[in-house]
Amino acid sequence: MDVLNSTVNKIGEINEELYAIAQKRLDNLTKPPGSLGRLEEFARRLVAITENKTPILDKKVVFTFAGDHGVTEEGVSAYPKEVTAQMVLNFIRGGAGINVLARHAGAEVVVVDIGVDYDFKELDGLMKMKVVRGTRNFARGPAMTKEEAVKCIETGITLAEGYAIKGYKIFGTGDMGIGNTSPSSAIAAVLTGKKVAAVTGKGTGISDDSLRKKISTIEKGIRINAPDPKDAIDVLSKVGGAEIGGIAGLILGAAANRVPVIIDGLISTAGAMIAFTIEPKVSGYLFAAHNSVEVGHKAMLDAMGLKPIVDLNLRLGEGTGAAVAMLIIEAGLKIYREMATFGDAGVSDEIIN
Amino acid sequence: MDVLNSTVNKIGEINEELYAIAQKRLDNLTKPPGSLGRLEEFARRLVAITENKTPILDKKVVFTFAGDHGVTEEGVSAYPKEVTAQMVLNFIRGGAGINVLARHAGAEVVVVDIGVDYDFKELDGLMKMKVVRGTRNFARGPAMTKEEAVKCIETGITLAEGYAIKGYKIFGTGDMGIGNTSPSSAIAAVLTGKKVAAVTGKGTGISDDSLRKKISTIEKGIRINAPDPKDAIDVLSKVGGAEIGGIAGLILGAAANRVPVIIDGLISTAGAMIAFTIEPKVSGYLFAAHNSVEVGHKAMLDAMGLKPIVDLNLRLGEGTGAAVAMLIIEAGLKIYREMATFGDAGVSDEIIN
Question: Which of A138, A267, B9, B110 could form an S-S bond across to A221 if both were Cys, CB 3.0 to 4.6 Å?
């Protein structure tokens, strides 16, 4: 708990005093005030988060945390659980959606085995930081012990610290884990107070019958484990999963180091909700990448006051939405850094009425 | 009219038979079917538009058409009309929003003087294709003659043909012209049948009083000129502007050459409505970049059956939204071209239920 506690203690509010300084520069660029809408918002926020009046995003990284889930025994997913390990190998070879989109965004992909039920060899690009070999089935008891849950979070913190020190300027989060929409919806239900049915969707694509079964499985898991909504570690340990804990830790570690984080879809946002419940100040450091097809996603974004950047009907996970959003956030920063001012350009900034 | 007529005759439907072939490849990539949502839609559409099973977007360009508007005499804009020419010079120097965002998207910017009320020197990067030296005030009579309107469209066609031959694979459209939301809203009202007040917004940022004056000016212009909504050339000539005609021509020329076009906001979409009224098949070649703050924009997108890619509260024009959308469309194409298939990756594509 020491790493977790000292990290949380380091997290400050973002520096909103810098909004005015950033906005002054934005308003002096050769465009009508506010006409670049949310691109201007992204630039302002990067300035306030980093406390740097001219931030730059030269080193970018998406962390894809992978873990397995005992709850797949209950038939809650469309794919067999072996796919988690197979996809990790696909990430390492560069063939997955996140590899393609991160390349497009100029970001590296760091794949983290935090809980996969498979023994990987040493592989370039794979961080072997396994805390559990798959979680236990939360429909029958706690997914993890409290110690395991804390270790997952501290693993994320360690990664955030390390990459902040190496000079990475923005993090994206992503996930891989067959079955992981179930713990994510469970977290959404417990931490937003909404009914399980209102925050549970079809994941990678199950039938209506399977969706009903998934909902009742999650309801049963919450009933049996009775997670305390005021205690994020309790919630994480009761329903899992390891990758969600890793994401929560990454966010806490990033906020402690004033690094902005782009959260992907449902699973990453469940991780963010865990971090937010531990320390609400983290929301200032977060960008919500996209509006996921998964219904539980919006409930959690609303709880944290975050507005998604794109709405492209994505539901893949891995960090794919975060990579797309990274391109747009960087567009806002380039506007801020590279556009000419009225003075530079000899353009009239007189407004007639 | 010969160039216009022969171009329109060349425009065919997009090849929807290729959707199935593209979708088959998309469904064989290492992801649940459909899980990359609209990114998959963009890839499918690029295949159907280009009739190329593996299209590539190696050469990209945004055309920013500039023109002045006699209707600025009526006090419909927040900025003096001299700003049009000043901004053209800013584009040439690379300091404007469109320069920054096109660089980010890996696209060139081609600036076209099609109707600016200023005599530019020869400048690298400026296409001097002036048809009118500003339009006439459409609140007092026709903005252009029919011959001028056709010449604006044919100028756009010539550019599209030239850049298609040079191997550019996707075009973005953009505009610069103080006062040009007024003719655009006039076009929206005439061609969608909606009331002027329902399709007129505050442009670069006028007051409520000025908005009322702008609406009554546009209403007066439509009453005096009585444009025929079935005759797009009549509409274009009566309310203008030159840059809107250039954009319409660019779209017709692109469709005739099977080049996809990303249309920016209100002004570009008014150009698209002119092209669509001449030949409805063009809508198959169009991508709507974003959901503009300007209220007339959505009415025209709906009329053409187009759904915006991003919603970032943009209202700058120049092609800035098109440049952002280009990044996302290319993301979809890279997914299609670069992701591993289940077979390549040794990932199970068995679906359990």
Answer: A138
